[in-house]
Design brief:
With about 525 residues, the chain is of the alpha/beta class. The chain folds into 3 domains: about 45-155 and about 375-485, Rossmann fold, CATH 3.40.50; about 155-370, 3-Layer(bba) Sandwich (FAD/NAD(P)-binding domain), CATH 3.50.50; about 485-520, no CATH class. The chain contains 18 helices and 21 strands. The protein has a 6-stranded mixed beta sheet with strand order 3-2-1-6-21-20, with helices on one face. Strands 8-16-9-10-12-11 form a 6-stranded parallel beta sheet. Helix 3 crosses helix 5 (about 100-110). The longest helix is centred in the C-terminal third of the chain and has 20 residues, at about 435-455. It starts with a helix and ends with a helix. The chain binds flavin-adenine dinucleotide and NADP nicotinamide-adenine-dinucleotide phosphate. Flavin-adenine dinucleotide (FAD) binds next to helix 3, strand 2, helix 4, strand 4 and helix 8.
Length: about 525
């Protein structure tokens, strides 16, 4: 069985579980009523679908729908002039094999039924954004279906004193974006020369990526597609000691086996012994994945800390309470409260504070506690419900976007219904966790929901769906912004690869929108 088929099967069996929730029952019953009262026949007319975002969720949803509903026309809108979302701007440069999914995306984009519309944001993509903007309401008029797959463009905050006061405290999203050439952070210029201790708050795989960038031999990195600016900065780095700090314990850590093993194997980099009181006595009895994780942490690195040029540690049961800085405005220390695990060996254990504190010297701090999605301008007017607490578009678990109406008074039940033709996929659908494979599975479930709705004559958007991008483009191109089509991206891609050849890398990315647009013309 291919992995694609396997993932699709998993998505299909999940349906049953998702539909067993009370909310889902409500949606289902509403949905079947609406479906039976709709009689519009589609007479083989092609489905015209807009996808907002060109990351894995956008591409995999497009692929799925195009496969299941023949003749579907897809217009994919991307705020940046270049495609692939976090595959380009998130995945670590020393993990090139992860980017192989781009081959599939290129195949999707090569279809005559697919149009890439880059440098065009739906709603406003934020203050830094310089491309073209299409208001959400205008777009909705020109499609049968719209899929929101715009990922998570912000990050979570700790909300502790000093966090936004001192320089030298970065979110992992900024730092990762910077070394990967994201235009928004091209000028971040993190100072790695202020001292030798770095603190990373959070123990997920992004935290491990950040640590690896700080600890890895720069000669290994310079062969990857990391930006030259990042190489120059890393060459000057004085960081010798990296603390990866978690508020819970090893049994609760969010990172995974391959990623922690990779750090342990870094040449000439030592790992400080783990606090063994947090490791269960009988590791062999743990489920396989947890057991492997514990074994790797207990075994540690082959390089000895006292002989290694650089070292790192996993510091557990510490929750940040304050950042302290110097008179020059730069962070100097991070204060943590020690926490106590309610059930130390239970992976879902909660922690409580102990009021005991610990201060770790911090020449630089990275906050790696997760990304965050936000609502697009125009959601409210379109009746799209966004859950600001979870940072997701409210949906039925299969990607059908909900309009949530509150009852007349707070004691009345909520009525949730699907907004016809509106769907979501990826991180904006289920929150900012999951690797590309799980994002694919998730996108396939949204694709299947769209195909099933279309084939069952369920209601879709009521606009003039015969037009799509052709109707929108005149309004956009009258402005001074340039729209990037797939052929333009291929020129940017070629240009980046040529620049890469000159410095012995696969590609040298353009780090500003202006350079990308110039390469496209
Ligand atoms: P994204 O990939 O973020 O794509 C969203 C796209 O929407 C972006 O291109 C964005 O520019 C665009 N967009 C945003 N707003 C708008 C708008 N208003 N209009 C138009 N377009 C818009 N997974 C792995 O399997 N292996 C790894 O090694 C790995 N490394 C990772 C490293 C990091 C630092 C991070 C953060 C994640 C990593 N992941 C990895 C996870 C993987 O990247 C995600 O699962 C996946 O990218 C989520 O896909 P998405 O399409 O939902 O979002
Ligand atoms: P994540 O896996 O959700 O990890 C977030 C970390 O931040 C957790 O340790 C969490 O601890 C901690 N945290 C959250 N809020 C906190 C707070 N207020 N105070 C202190 N700590 C806090 O998120 P991520 O690392 O951003 O990764 C996102 C997704 O991308 C994950 O699914 C990841 O696997 C994937 N990814 C994969 C790769 C790869 O495959 N190589 C690389 C990078 C990312 P708690 O558990 O206690 O909440």
């Amino acid at each position: 069985m291919t992995s694609l088929t396997k993932s699709w099967l998993c998505a299909a069996c999940r349906r049953k579980t998702v539909f067993s929730s009370p909310l889902a029952h409500k949606i289902l019953s509403h949905y079947s009523t609406t479906t039976t009262t709709t009689t519009t026949s589609r007479h083989g007319r092609p489905l015209r679908m807009a996808v907002v975002g060109s990351g894995p969720a956008g591409f995999y949803t497009a692929y799925r729908v195009m496969t299941k509903v023949p003749k579907t026309k897809v217009d994919m809108f991307e705020a940046l002039p270049v495609p692939y979302g976090l595959v380009r701007f998130g995945v670590a440069p020393d993990h090139p094999e992860v980017k192989n999914c781009q081959d599939k995306f290129e195949e999707v984009a090569s279809s005559p039924d697919f149009t890439f519309i880059g440098n065009v944001s739906i709603g406003n993509a934020g203050g830094h954004f310089q491309g073209c903007t299409i208001p959400l309401a205008s777009m909705l008029h020109h499609y049968d279906a719209v899929v929101f797959a715009y990922g998570a463009s912000q990050d979570k905050q700790l909300g502790v004193p000093g966090e936004s006061e001192y320089k030298g405290i970065y979110s992992a999203r900024e730092f990762v974006g910077w070394y990967n050439g994201l235009p928004e952070y091209a000028n971040l210029a993190p100072d790695l020369t202020r001292g030798d201790e770095a603190v990373i708050v959070g123990q997920g795989n992004v935290a491990l990526d950040v640590a690896r960038m700080l600890l890895e031999n720069v000669d290994v990195l310079r062969k990857s597609d990391i930006t030259e600016a990042a190489i120059e900065t890393l060459l000057k780095s004085r960081i010798k000691r990296v603390h990866i700090v978690g508020r819970r314990g090893p049994m609760q850590a969010a990172f995974t086996i391959k990623e922690i093993r990779e750090l342990m194997k870094l040449h000439g980099v030592g790992f400080h012994d783990i606090d063994m009181s947090l490791i269960p006595d009988e590791i062999s009895k743990l489920p396989r994945a947890r057991r492997r994780l514990m074994e790797i942490m207990v075994k540690g690195s082959s390089a000895r800390v006292d002989e290694a040029a650089k070292s790192w540690s996993l510091d557990f049961c510490l929750s940040p309470t304050e950042f302290l800085g110097g008179s020059d405005g730069f962070v100097e220390k991070t204060v943590f409260e020690r926490t106590s695990l309610e059930l130390p060996f239970d992976p879902s254990s909660r922690v409580v504070g102990t009021e005991e504190t610990l201060t770790i010297p911090s020449s630089i701090v990275f906050r790696s506690i997760g990304y965050k999605s936000v609502a697009l301008p125009g959601f409210k007017e379109a009746g799209i419900s966004f859950d600001t607490r979870k940072g997701i578009i409210d949906n039925d678990g299969l990607g059908r976007v909900l309009r949530t109406k509150r009852g007349e008074n707070e004691h009345q039940d909520q009525e949730a219904s699907h907004l016809p033709g509106i769907y979501c996929a990826g991180w904006v659908k289920r929150g900012p966790t999951g690797v590309i494979a799980s994002t694919m599975e998730d996108a396939f479930s949204t694709g299947d929901a769209i195909a099933s709705d279309w084939n069952s004559e369920a209601p879709f958007l009521k606009g003039d769906s015969s037009s799509g991008w052709e109707a929108l483009r005149s309004g956009v191109e009258h402005g001074k912004c340039k729209v990037i089509q797939w052929e333009d991206w291929l020129k940017i891609d070629k240009s980046e690869r040529e620049r890469g050849l000159l410095v012995g890398k696969e590609r040298e990315k353009f780090t500003s929108t202006a350079e990308m647009l110039a390469a496209a013309s």
